[in-house]
Design goal:
This protein is mainly alpha-helical. The chain is 63% helix and 10% strand. The chain has six helices and three strands. Strands 1-3-2 form a three-stranded antiparallel beta sheet. Helix 3 packs across helix 4 (54-62). The longest helix has 19 residues, at 94-112. The radius of gyration is 25 Å and the shape is flat.
């Protein structure tokens, strides 16, 4: 197999890469980009956004575990509320737990004095 090499300057290479990226972006709009622009998501979009199955999403709505709206038989989800819901599940780091413990113990000592 014969390999051909093209000699380019760094500037030419950068220009070729930028043109290729622009062409790719114009030809293909990723699903995540389309979803991120929308404020209201349907069940399919919300499941993709949360990276869970649609079945799991429906179970979570039945148990009121995730924020949603219902109009007729359709479910809708606010992207901002889903983000808040995700962030509310943040687990504290060891450093945060230790800091909270120190604060609690210091406040407890002050109250006793």
């Amino acid at each position: 197999m014969v390999q051909n090499f093209i000699m380019t300057t760094p500037e030419q290479l950068e220009e070729l890469i930028l043109k290729s990226i622009k062409t790719a972006l114009l030809q293909h709009k990723p699903l995540e980009t389309a979803i991120s622009i929308k404020h209201i998501l349907n069940a399919n979009e919300a499941a993709r956004f949360l990276q869970i199955s649609k079945h799991t999403l429906y179970r979570m709505t039945s148990n009121n575990e995730v924020p949603f709206f219902k109009r007729g038989k359709k479910l809708y989800f606010k992207r901002s509320e889903l983000l808040k819901w995700i962030e509310a599940g943040k687990q504290k780091t060891v450093e945060e737990v230790l800091a909270d413990t120190d604060d609690y113990l210091m406040n407890r000592k002050k109250k006793k004095q």
